[in-house]
Amino acid sequence: MKFEVSKRDCTTRIGTLGIAGNEIVTPDILWYSSSRIKAPEFSPIHLSQDKIDERVSISSSGSFFYPDSEEDGETVIPPSLVYPYAFPSELHGTDAKWNYKHAGAIQIISGRALDKISRDAIVYVLSNARELFSNPRNFVMAVTKVREAIGYQKALYTPGLGEPSHIALLSYCTVDLFDSIPLVEKARKKILLFADGAFNVDELEEIPCSCPACVNKDTSFSGTLAHNYHAAFSEIKRVRNAIRNGSLRNLVESRASFQPEIASMVCVLDKEYYGFQERRYPSVGKKIVASSLTINRPDVERFRKRVLDRYVRPDSTKILVLLPCSARKPYSFSKSHRIFRRAIDFCGNPGVVHEVVVTSPLGIIPIELEMAYPSAHYDISVTGYWSLDEQKMVKKQLDSYLEKNRYDVVINHLPENISEFLGVGGEMNTCSGHTTSSASMSNLSTMLKKESSKYDVVSRNLRKQENVKSLLSYQFGNTSLTEDCKIRGKYPGYKIFCDGIQIGMLIEKRGLFSLTLDGGRRLAETGVYFVEIEDFIPRGSIFAIGVTDADKNIRCGDEVVVLHNWDVRAVGVASMGGEEMIESRSGEAVKVRHHKK
């Protein structure tokens, strides 16, 4: 048995589980099969006590009290001793020792006792999964503890869980395998399962499904079970596609809108397990469809933290202009922000003016970061109404930013409803009605000309240099990369040159800088975003088995420099996080762009 990760998104991944010469794509369902209840024809893997047919199967070898013998060549869940989760920790320590002793390729594991982990196991079975799921906080705590204990390169199975409406959330919690037992149980109670919940068949005058059983109006046990199988199978494919497309979190949030227990688990994860999630979240991604849960999602919170902790504003800026967001992104490409930009360009000294966008769910966005994920990758319904959580978040972010970044003048060009809860305005409020109205733009232009004339003129080249420095400070947490360098090109096609040699280029699609080999050498001097490899020259992708060390701050999608004994061998983009590179023995670690000749 073996398990290998092939595609990552947010906290989770798609993997391949090899069993008895067959490969199963995860996340997936273990389909219960017996002589009385047949697994569906499309099921790739069975969960059964006896061998029913030729398909791959995982069987049980019983419990502590009634162990079954394990037959050679079969994949079995070992006999187990499991106490209820609520029992004292001492008892869980006892069952952990017993389960550890009987572990093989599969080990039973408890979230209450994690000191006995078999490093040879490939699949870990979370005991009491069903009991835990009834309590959102307990479930999240147990799953995160277990995942931290077993590492990212092992498969996790939660027996007794697998309803269609739960699959996205379970996958998001890094669970790789579920089973169809709840589908059978609900069918016996005449309950039809859907991705957005469960309904009694007698309560539905029209069944909103076009699977064969529903089309034939078969509401018997077998018909209801066939529908539940169809719903779960469809959802597992939907989840895997979401992982491939980088949109699983959007799917989880949509499922949470129908089910309070899922919303509770997402809230607990975001509020109490930010670090667990953030280490696995990529630094680049697809579009975020904002909901009430988006405000605390890890990549959004990470952006806010980096703006406050890493980002260095352009040195020459003395005047801050607070601007609203736009539907089109990046902002500077939108109609409204082109109007704002004209007022700034014609003020006589635009180099001293700094544009910062106020928005939800990100808080504030310095204009240099407008293309960096997730600044240019979110959609939110614009109604003019801000929730209390949004108001509190934005005000806290702005106050913290202004405490760190001191400006001589703060011009507020925000709509009145935003100005009110931010507590900004007064003489420096230039918005009158709509932000792009003639009166508003006249006020803004007049104020900018008046205030900018008080300072020495800042050249466009100097400001361009400072803008690049600010973006690099956000990307790498370091501002030394542009020392003694010149910036060429027109935004957004900036290129960095040092002594006539190009060291980097701003890539519009990523909103970040990509480095040449010479740029990698400068990055290596800072001691960040490095991947140490064994002694070889990478000609293509670098696989984790060749990695000996890596900066733990690396996230999937980050620009990295590849070294051997501090000799720069390549530059490229990380395909997994730094911690996972160190832990893994398989899979692509870095996609190489340039390598040493």
Multimerization status: single chain
> CATH superfamily of the domain at 2-276, called what?
Queuine tRNA-ribosyltransferase-like
Number of helical stretches of at least 4 residues: 18
Could you tell me the radius of gyration in angstroms?
Answer: 28 Å
CATH topology of the domain at 2-276: TIM Barrel
**CATH architecture name of the domain at 2-276:** Alpha-Beta Barrel
Q: Give the overall shape, derived from the CA principal axes.
A: globular
**Unreliable stretches:** none
Measured between the Cα atoms of the first and last residue, the distance is 39 Å
How helix-rich are the residues, as a percent range?
A: 25-40%
Mean pLDDT score, rounded?
94
Strands side by side in the biggest sheet:
25-29-28-27-24-26
How does the major sheet shape up?
6 strands, mixed
CATH class of the domain at 2-276: Alpha Beta
Can you count the beta strands? 29
3D structure, described in words:
This protein is of the alpha/beta class. The protein has a domain at 2-276: TIM Barrel. It is built from 18 helices and 29 strands. The strands form eight sheets. Strands 25-29-28-27-24-26 form a six-stranded mixed β-sheet. A five-stranded parallel β-sheet has the order 7-6-5-4-11. The protein has a four-stranded mixed β-sheet with strand order 17-16-15-19. Helix 3 (136-150) crosses helix 9, helix 5 runs antiparallel to helix 7 and helix 12 (335-345) packs parallel to helix 15 (438-452). It is globular, with a radius of gyration of 28 Å. It starts with a strand and ends with a strand. The model has no long low-confidence stretch (mean pLDDT 94).
